[in-house]
């Protein structure tokens, strides 16, 4: 009976985790291959300088098998699989550590302890987050994009101090042009202007401060980052009316 209760409890936990993942994944709009260059630029420029070599290799592995392959930030991996399926051990070519095992097969896998330490390092920096307990298929992790990682946000802010949106660009279309939309999200640090929710390029939207129906344009000054929920609630109301209602 005790074993049955534990199995039921584990099943309930799995269902709860699956429901949370589905809710989070539903907020992600479809991944477009056109966005991959931008993502990779952010990974290389903002995240890689903060990672150790093994951590960088693991992060790219997670990115490959989550967002790029399935269009969601979730991936289930095995720690034992990671130690031999991602990167060659840094010690395999050392003279005091032969590159063959006792049975003559190649011995280039990193140690289990190194794999675990690498995952711990990625979690500590905020690049991945464990989403559930391990099972026979591995452990479920959520990959976080550079816009969600604090150290990357700091690096981006430092870069923006030297590359602000210039005055002659304020009249450009920052709503319909993809490259310009990203500039607004970066300016607002990928946070919803209304509720401060952390967003990504897949969950962020743009909202007109002055609605187009009331004469607003698509300039940088008239656009702010918003989550889908706040944007839907605000609709075409002026910003002041929406904020006044939110405070009630």
* Structural class based on helices, strands and sheet pairing: mainly alpha
Which sequence of SSEs, written as H and E, runs from N to C? HHHEHHEEHHEEHH
* Helicity range: 40-55%
Shape, principal axes of CA atoms: globular
Strand content: 5-15%
Q: What is the subunit organization of this protein?
A: single chain
What topology, given as strand order, has the largest sheet? 1-3-2
Poorly predicted regions are: 19-23, 92-105
The biggest beta sheet reads:
3 strands, antiparallel
Query: Overall mean pLDDT score?
Result: 81
Number-wise, the strands total 5
Number of helices: 9
Using only C-alpha atoms, the radius of gyration works out to 22 Å
The separation of the N and C termini measures 52 Å
What's the short story on this structure?
Helix content is 46%, strand content 9%.
Question: Which descriptors would you attach to this protein?
Answer:
globular; 9 helices; three-stranded antiparallel beta sheet; 248 residues; mainly alpha
């Amino acid at each position: 009976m005790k074993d049955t209760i534990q199995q039921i409890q584990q099943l309930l936990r799995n269902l709860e985790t699956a429901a949370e993942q589905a809710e989070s994944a539903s907020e992600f709009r479809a991944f477009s291959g056109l966005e991959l260059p931008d993502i990779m630029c952010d990974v290389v420029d903002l995240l890689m300088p903060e990672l150790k070599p093994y951590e960088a290799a693991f992060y790219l592995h997670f990115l490959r098998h989550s967002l790029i392959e399935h269009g969601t930030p979730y991936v289930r991996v095995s720690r034992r699989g990671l130690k031999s399926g991602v990167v060659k051990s840094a010690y395999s070519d050392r003279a005091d550590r032969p590159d063959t095992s006792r049975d003559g097969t190649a011995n280039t896998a990193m140690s289990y302890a190194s794999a675990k330490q690498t995952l711990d390092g990625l979690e500590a920096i905020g690049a991945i987050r464990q989403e559930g307990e391990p099972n026979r298929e591995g452990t479920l992790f959520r990959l976080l994009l550079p816009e969600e990682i604090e150290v990357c946000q700091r690096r981006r802010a430092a870069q923006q101090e030297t590359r602000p949106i210039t005055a002659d660009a304020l009249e450009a279309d920052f709503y319909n042009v993809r490259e310009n939309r990203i500039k607004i999200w970066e300016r607002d640090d990928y946070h919803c202007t209304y509720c401060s929710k952390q967003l990504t390029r897949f969950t962020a939207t743009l909202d007109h401060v002055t609605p187009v129906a009331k004469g607003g344009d698509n300039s940088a000054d008239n656009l702010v980052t918003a989550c889908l929920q706040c944007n839907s609630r605000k609709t075409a109301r002026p910003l002041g009316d929406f904020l006044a209602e939110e405070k009630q």
